[in-house]
Batch of 4 targets.
Target 1
Amino acid sequence: MTPKKQVYDAIVVGSGISGGWAAKELTERGLRTLVLEAGGPVDASDFTEHVQPWEMHFRGWGDRKILAAEHPVQRECYACDEAGHKFFVNDIDNPYTTPADAPFKFFRGRQVGGRASMWGRQVYRWSDLDFEANAKDGHGNDWPIRYQDIAPWYSHVEKFIGVTGAKEGLSQLPDGEFLPPMAMSASERHGREQILKKFGGERVMTIGRAAILTENHNGRLACHYCGPCERGCVTHSYFNSIGSTLPAARKTGRLTLRPWSVVAEVLYDPKKGKARGVRVIDAQSMESLEFEAKIVFLCASTIESVRLLLNSKSNHFPDGMANASGTLGKYVMDHHYGSGASGTMPGFLDKKTIGHRPNGIYIARFQNVKREEKNFLRGYGMQGGGGRGGWGRGSSMPGYGASFKNMLIDDLGPWGLSASGWGETLPHEANRITLDPTVKDKWGIPAAHIDVRWRENEKAMDEHMKTAMVEMLEAAGCTNINAHGSSNPPGHCIHEMGGARMSKTPEEGVLNQWNQAWQVKNLFVTDGAAMASNGCQNPSITYMALTARAAAHAAAEFKRGAL
């Protein structure tokens, strides 16, 4: 039986942070665009940020039997609980494999909006310190772009999504188009002042830069500090594709969104030397379908886009589509994170916080910026916060009613301050994704085999995170300071990157400076797979900026008949 065919100007695989931006930019530039999402639809009724624990059968903890049976990997993410597990994949249907001695935690969301419904919302620009790092220290290939190439697209994205933050004038952490910043707590403000003083302005603690609205913006309401953003947001006060980019694309009348569409491979036309479309397996009926387009954007997330390319084999590309360089699947990275310190901040007992601020503090990278660190290359930023202890005790105490709640409010513990590091991982060829030779997912597609390991540079950086945070807490006047390490394996940070990297030449990578495949000019990859290095900043805004930039280029090339 001949598979069904439909033809579009562009196909976008994935509807999350990158896919939503590709859909918005392509449709607004006149292209009839099909967005394919492997999971099902989501609407505001699926968001449960206002549902209270006593309204849930397991009081928010979740059914341990179901979580163990269907989400043995996903449940290790803090957001995969009773309210949020529906936004995470069934691990039995979606397997992956790793070497026995190299665990990797692959947290996934397969539904319209992807992981954009439960992401961390922290957004930090890269600088030339990041784009030039590979070339300067010889680890990885040189990026084909620099900050000046992407800076206008950072601004383009920030103006649309709404980013709260404070301008600090740091070369290594460029300022952006910010809405008013969220307020720092008493312990955070004091810590910032004392750390700046102690370290001569070299170590800067600032309020987190977050894709959360502090004032009404683009038809979306300001955040009201309810707290559990990972469950979704009915007011769309934080950026996700469901509440922002997909509606913008739909408004053009040129968007077709098809959920339950598991893309199995990109189809190649050897006569034209182009991608002609994709083969899809309907997730519900298991029917095989083909969709054709002049342009294909892969925005399925790092590992899924790499897996898709590896599975897209032909006589012309026997080792995976656009893999003439042999780098496809290699140089995979994630941020190593969690090492740091915490302490008690004396004083300020007349101060309290109001609401649940969905943001923390950020300490900008200060290593290997103005002077060289001898123990490791690259650097790290730190994230954390300061607040008063005591709320948690209510979960283990008898009592109810207004008097009980007032006691919890009025008799809080001391202020604390803590932060942990998010560190850059060097690109290593041996950190890679391949296809498992025997394991397949529910739809018959070979599973990803992920072999990514922390190495000596990452381990040395983790030790420095602890020492540096202890120094800063001491400078801030904290007592009871405790350093802590981290046992988080690769993948746990959910910042996986690389595998189809951008490069200056076709011999060094998969994609050119426009996120365009060197050997397949109508194929674009704009999610984390495109990254040639991974900086230390949360990466999502860089994916968004790269996607918007690539889509604008693709649309212009399409209109002049070059694709």
Target 2
Amino acid sequence: MPMDLDVFFHDPWWVVALKALFAFVVLLLLTLFTIWYERRVVAFMQHRIGPNMNGPFGLLQSLADGMKLMFKEDFTPTAADKVVFMLAPFVVAIPAITAFAVIPMAGIVRVPFTDITTPLQVTDLPVSVLFIVAVASMGVYGIVLAGWSSGSTYSLLGALRSSAQVISYEVAMGLALVAVFLYAGSLSTSEIVAKQAEPATVFGVPLWFAVQLLPSFIIYLISMVGETNRAPFDLPEAEGELVGGFHTEYSSMRFAMFFMAEYMNMITVSALATTLFLGGFHAPLPFNLLPGADSGYWGFLWFLLKVLVVLFIFVWLRGTLPRLRYDQFMRFGWRWLIPISLVWTLMIAIVRLGQREGWFAGRGFWLGAAVVFAVLVGLAFFGGGKEEPAKEADEPGREGMSEFDAFAGGYPVPPMGDQVLPEFAQVLSGEEDLAPDRSPDEERTKEGSEA
């Protein structure tokens, strides 16, 4: 049964302002913590110490870095469009903050020192998830404006990469969320969280959508990494190719705003994954069996822990995977991720319609499904064609050796062990053929004497 969203529109104005301030402070503190968290986890993975000097366990290192950037020299390139150049960091940072307004951080809580109770969520809408997706996509405009207004070719290339990247992976992300809408029957974040707290059919245990819709969850995790321009998908700021990406010409606090916006986007998409797939602020097993384990401010604790688990995925990928090539990255998004998302969404729609119409109640359906499954398994194991035998080399002494094309994949690469350079494969001849009556040593001796 749909929840009553009117509870969000009857709070006093100062309560709404207090909740907005609380959400902003939580997001800001999480940003500072995430920077420290990433550096410590990567240091642990690489057998290093990481930040440990400023504050206990180095927790104030992020604050020290922010103070350092604040006192750095701020400059504007001569060829830059100064107004757009100045506003671009705000266009990137503000959407990341705004999207956090519809994330439910806990259930009904009591405002301290008063008798007023309110949901620990700034507001909610019937289309809150669409609001988050729309607002988050606005951040790419700030990146494009930053690259264009800098007056630098490298910055512009990084900005254009980012726009193509966000468009590609937002399509897959949106399709991954459609399955959640079909199962929850709502686009409201609070209703989706409440739906995941209802007992499922498996032993009466609440099953989050991450379990019921595992392919959608995996697609969303991949898409959120591409959406936030994080490794191994950090192509807009590929240092080896584009110097520093779209923020090459930025310094001081303007650069710090880009840096903060990246981590704020990480936290926002992690909070969205927690809300849509991991039960939101509800306690996991076995704590959810305890009465009141996620009521009040206890739900905020579970929410933070789940967000940190999703943030660990970002850090884990950065510490283990190298950066992809841009063509590989775009091919993966358009040729694999989006088609798989479309097929999975269609299957979910058919299943939901079948459950409503009672298609799965008869024995004939399951018998037909078993036959189709057996046919697919048989084709998977026995449906492959015979491999053609490899052609033997015509030239003597080159059996088993393959001809080598250094530019076959579009990039110059060295030959492998079973490959032959074109000169030796007689595919390309040198500038001057050797005389038939002279050996290579005699030819080099002649060239030296002529020099």
Target 3
Amino acid sequence: MAYRHFEFIEKHAWTLGILTAIMVSIGGLAEITPLFIEANKVQPAEGVKPYDPLRLAGRDVYVREGCYLCHSQMIRALRFETERYGHYSTASESVYDRPFQWGSKRTGPDLARVGGKYSDEWQRLHLMNPRQVVPQSNMPDYPWLALHLIDGKDIQARMRVLRMLGDPYTDTDINNAPKAVAGKTEMDALIAYLQGLGIDNEPHKPDAPPPAPASTGAAP
């Protein structure tokens, strides 16, 4: 190409700007498109299912209250992390999370495998006043969660939207949602969500059921 063509582009700012935007867009698509394609290939592993109504409500409470700002749910494939928290996190166990809660901020401990580590009562005390069970904790209190009941109709609406996005909820699952959360508080839901982390969402073989939650717990 003759230099006069380049000279025209260099001397006309609008032309240079438009062509630059086009080239940057092409380069960006070349980098991003393969990532989107690869992400859509991730399938739930054996044993990983969508959240049941109560845990779905609990996850929404977890996100609403900003718990992810201090707690991650990603264990890296490093020895010092797996020895402390358990098996490293995999994409397949978070396939039904929108958005996923991996993160990297650890003001508090990682929660990817916290399910069954403590009893329901320990979790309740911890949410009401963390310093009852962990004196050095700087986590805020969440007593109001015990006062607010879960809205079954709202959970049904959320499940319908998630089904549109690909979660395999059946009509029966959605119709039974109000009954599953009847009389349950936001605290009950949040505890159910936490008690399933690393148990209900960790891949396992059909002939090897996930471990049952512990009946008692101790402070970290």
Target 4
Amino acid sequence: MDITRDPERPSVEGPEDYFTGDVRIDPLFEPDADARTAAANVTFEPGARTNWHTHPIGQQLIVTSGCGYVQREGGPVEEIRAGDVVWFPADEKHWHGAQPGKAMTHVAVQEEEDGDAVTWLEAVSDDQYPGGE
């Protein structure tokens, strides 16, 4: 058994290369020698969002507070709220983030394949984002 205490996992800002707006990432756990799953609490301030991206084995989102949006390439923008669970299959291009007037937090769970858990792509434009300018 291994217990990692919360203070051992400091919060980090979402890098501008991968996010628009203010995003805080609170790591929960990383893969180790016997597992390939990682998870983090991710908090998006109003209007903040990820870039388009994919995951080699897929990604599960568990919305824990607030209201947000998700979209897969070619699909409509979908509203998500606390209690919703979203699954993106392997290699499905997508983005997620908060609504313009409300912050949103979710737990993001994904697995690594050959040491990679995500491929970051282009930013979601203001025209693609509901309520954007």
